[in-house]
Amino acid sequence: xxxxxASVTKPVPVPDExxxxxxxxxxxxxxxxxxxxxxxxxxxxxxAVCPECQYPDLGFREVSGRARVxxxxxxxxxxxxxxxADEPYVIGIIELVEQERLVLVANVVxxxxxxxxIGMPLRVTFERLNDEIALPQFEPDEGD
Length: 144
Ligand SMILES: [Zn+2]
Hints:
Number of helices: 1
Structural class: mainly beta
Largest sheet: 5 strands, antiparallel
Distance between the termini: 43 Å
Order of helices and strands: HEEEEEEEE
Number of strands: 8
Strand order of the largest sheet: 6-5-4-7-8
Bound molecules: zinc ion
Number of domains: 2
Shape: globular
């Protein structure tokens, strides 16, 4: 099989003890971000202790799903199997509105790659990969 074989399935995230609440929320169509009860910072990717204050008892909090493009790149020839059918597609560094520099790596979807720009308003949407994993992605926020 080659990288250009569209029948090859994409790699699927495997939740672990720390990331499980993120994926459980996503599976319900909710974006939940790890949050420190001690210093009130959001944390992503999920960590065992707060990177700011080392507080160990971290929870998850539902966020708005509103975001903007921090930066992005267009992928035209991914060597990882399973992505050929999507090319070209946009990988974004997505900054959530809840906190400066609170960023996720996700695809920007439902828009032509050449129309994606830095600062563009986005909202979360979910791409279902299987019964347990729905991948948070972002699409243009038309403000409705
Ligand atoms: Zn903290």
